[in-house]
Structure prediction request, 539 residues.
Amino acid sequence: MYLFDTPEKLRSLLCEIVSWDSRTLTEGERFFSWKLQNKLGELAYFEKHPEHVTLHDAGLGRQVVHALYKHPEATETIVLISHFDTVHTDEYGALEPLAFYPEELTKKLLEDKDALTEVARADLESGNYLFGRGTMDMKMGLALHMQLIERASIEKWPINLLLCTVPDEEVNSAGMRAAVKELVRLQEEEGHQYKLFLNGEPSFSQGPTDTKEYIYSGTIGKIMPSALFYGKETHVGEPLKGITADYMASFLTQAMEWNPLFQETDLGESTPLPVTLLQKDLKIQYSTQTPQRAAALYNVFMFKRSATEVMDLFEQVANEAMTRCNEAYQAVCSRESVETIGTIRVLRFEELLDYAIKKLGKGEVARLKQEVLLQEDWDDREQSIRIVDTLMIECQELGPAVVLFYAPPYYPAVNTSDDPLVIESIQFLQERAQVFDLKLDQVHYFNGICDLSYVHYKDEGDHWKAFAKNTPVYGATYDIPFEDMRKLTAPVLNVGPFGKDAHQKSERVHIDSAFKEMPVLLEQLVKKLAGMQQLPKSR
Prediction:
């Protein structure tokens, strides 16, 4: 007996798992894995093989869920990747209680259409979309993978399918980073031969008015070069006896924002320009003392560049920015006939750390770092800032200075567009989509950032070490299993439903795409990979 075989049953499944509120870093995220394990246990295959549904620790009480359909004669395995956490729901306002109930929310929005943009309102009135947090990003992908597992297990498709759904994709990808270790164990100890890592993230638009549907043969990389600005405090009545960190930060932020030096182009696609994700001074309370410490985090997307190359470029831009800052500051001091407090230097975190160890000793540096790490209210980014800040307070003679570092998370770019299996699979999907009068365009780098970043990792020069050395919390609260990622060599592909407005109040999934088109296309793709379907002949 099938539980998820019709569009109506699949829609019901989506609404059920969306109702399991699993916002990142909430109790709901922790409980979701247990609910899903019980739901998967309702399938006949897992009633017979309950040991094939397993939970794996992802930290903070969260679990990765693995569900394995294993054919007795199959040697190859397709890994079906998804995430079950969602972003928060404050933007829903009075409608927030309905954010996780798609049917009710969609009906309620029809009574209050002014709450939506003109485009979203038109989609609502069309009846072609189902609204709600997680409908698009990305519980529909998980629902489709659950349907695939059920069909394969009942019909005994001659291939292994491993459903791998993880928490925490929306913040640090702790779930996928934990899953990598178990995937390697299955490969090495139980002989799984991975054929494809198939993600189910939705089709993301390439611009505000874009309504095309896409399949992806890779995913964009993201890294966060950051800076701690350490100036010299003074009383506001004597401003030129110091230099504010905010003044220093303004030069680097202006140099980083939208800087084309960081933009990459590959296979006809370009990375978005860098922007600032956070900038603040570190004063906790108001006073007439000027702020001498500030921090900024910058978002940089990547295709081909490594962590080493981005840090080199970041250092170049920072040096140029501080040269301009020094010149402007010296001009003011000259105009006002006062002495400068010094020249701003630029150094990397690894240089600051070496200096601090020589001055204070390894034990004292470790103690200072641990004091920061014990602050549970600070996340990885804040702890990174505060570790640099703490060391600079102990090494004030280095100031005024800008300390460059990396803050988590880091998503390496992955691309397998030239893999023969991926080329054939994309051709197959594009041909079969014509049955639905549907055109699927290929995008080489998924622009929404996703967990495929942690498989098929290639870094022959160990450039990841630049990230490890310059990330203050690396090895303590945050790490990436680079060596294990290298062992997961199968190609990647992302095929998911069409939707709009991820992370917005108007998040919605296209009903026909989710419940009629993608179920058929994914089933045909997996059957083809299992040798049950033939690739259509080229025209």
User: Anything to note?
Assistant: The first strand starts at residue 53 and ends at 57. The chain has 16 helices and 21 strands.
